[in-house]
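Friendly challenge for the regulars: who can give me the structure tokens for this chain first? No prize, just bragging rights.
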Amino acid sequence: MATSNISALSKMRNIVLTGFMGTGKSSVGKLLAQRLGFRYCDLDARIVEEEGISINEIFSRHGESHFRALETSAVRRLAQEQQCVVSTGGGAVIAPENRRLLMEAGVVVNLTASVEEICRRLREETDRPLLRDNRSEEHIERMLAEREPYYAHAELRIDTTGKSVEDVVAEIIVYLKERGFAWKP
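First reply, four minutes later:
Bragging rights claimed.
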């Protein structure tokens, strides 16, 4: 096996999906895990399971900084796992330690979408504490701009606007194959 493939194979312990809320991380993550024969791991769901309360409750009882600390602890644990497709929360990449751990854990794929598409996808959502008081396009656009430098660290970026989950998963798989990543489905 060529040296480049050895590093590619070792780097693909996991696939990590980052991106703003509503970009498709959970839907894409579940199907991608199924197609690769990996487990699916939702970072926010892990936090909820471990804490025994919802993300909204964590935010309202303890604040965002407490949630971010829980998130970093969860990222540390998930970074040790193998053959997992990990869907992160939209703000998980803000912390430098989280970005480092996620990049060490495997291939980081950032999903994006237009502001209009995000608003459409999140219209009926009630479990988004950072959008509880303001769901306007301007607010979402501002949050996206603030997070863009962190999302830009991803190895692959895919705009999911107007694409099916299947199309996004296919793009990720093509990217992995082109770079010599291998897995046992």
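The radius of gyration is 16 Å. The longest helix spans residues 64-78. Your move, everyone else.
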